[in-house]
Amino acid sequence: LRKIGEQYNRSPAQVALNWLIQKENVIPIPGAKNADQVKHNAGALGWQMQAEDIEGLDRISRPWLK
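Request: output the structure for the sequence above.
Response:
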């Protein structure tokens, strides 16, 4: 997540949220305790990762899909 985030100037959390947003049948519900966290979460919106980045995250997350 960190490596991909560096490519897009985003945090690992923003990359993870963006990845989930781009998945079908997934509705991520990020937590936030204050306005700064809401703003940070909003940084996951308005951009898209390259297909190879999404596929890479899909591939490394497969062991946890069982």
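The chain has a mean pLDDT of 95.
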